[in-house]
């Protein structure tokens, strides 16, 4: 079992059955699953996207200044982080929001050492605001934070149960990989994460497991090393 993980959650998945914002049922399911693995003794850092509220890149396509658009996206991730911390607290699980840019008292300003201190004390560190810089995605933010906090693995929770040869939601003939190397992802042009995030993980030997977080119970199964999802590793 992994001692310390970086869990990357999709903002879009937080919408659940809604068209926008946060689905309370999905949020509660996520919180319960995270609490379960925390009770197993796993140290947990979490990065959440903000696409259920605002996406900087799509905002730029609609006329927003790219830097301001990305800053709006950082705020969206912070809203999601606050929601998740509240849901975890309501279950009796301590969680703290750390932000990439100073937002006190909304959250503490992120530092590697503070995040590790909290995780070692049994709290969940929710790392909001991406990298704090524009032009970087939350995938890159999660890769960076995973490396910084010395996580054993990045768990990328998505709506699908792994990496496929094509988008399984669009192509019924797509086949799933049980495991794949970073270089294979690059050469096959697979859309797992952006290239910056993939390169960061490869160069720093941080393995990734892509799995379906929306299916209740899957997070515990990943922690128990059950064969679900797709492992990305350095070949």
Question: Could you name the key traits of this structure?
Answer:
37% helix; 235 residues; two-stranded antiparallel ribbon; nine-stranded mixed sheet; alpha/beta; 8 helices; Carbamate kinase; 11 strands
Textual characterization of the structure:
The protein has 235 residues and is α/β, with parallel strands linked by helices. It has a single domain (4-233), classed as Acetylglutamate kinase-like (Carbamate kinase, 3-Layer(aba) Sandwich). It is 37% helix and 20% strand. The strands form two sheets. The protein has a nine-stranded mixed beta sheet with strand order 4-3-5-2-1-6-10-11-9, sandwiched between helices. A two-stranded antiparallel sheet has the order 7-8. Helix 1 crosses helix 3 and helix 5 packs parallel to helix 7. The mean pLDDT is 94.
Largest sheet: 9 strands, mixed
Q: What's the architecture, going by CATH?
A: 3-Layer(aba) Sandwich
For the terminal residues, how far apart are their CA atoms?
Answer: 21 Å
Instruction: Order the strands across the largest sheet as they lie in space.
Output: 4-3-5-2-1-6-10-11-9
Could you tell me the strand content as a percent range?
Answer: 15-25%
Q: What is the topology?
A:
Blueprint: E1 4-9, H1 24-38, E2 43-48, H2 56-61, H3 66-90, E3 95-99, E4 108-109, H4 112-120, E5 124-128, H5 138-148, E6 153-158, E7 163-164, E8 176-177, E9 179-181, H6 182-188, H7 195-203, E10 208-212, H8 218-223, E11 230-233
Parallel strand pairs: 1-2, 1-6, 2-5, 3-4, 3-5, 6-10, 9-11
Antiparallel strand pairs: 7-8, 10-11
Helix pairs in contact: 1-3, 5-7
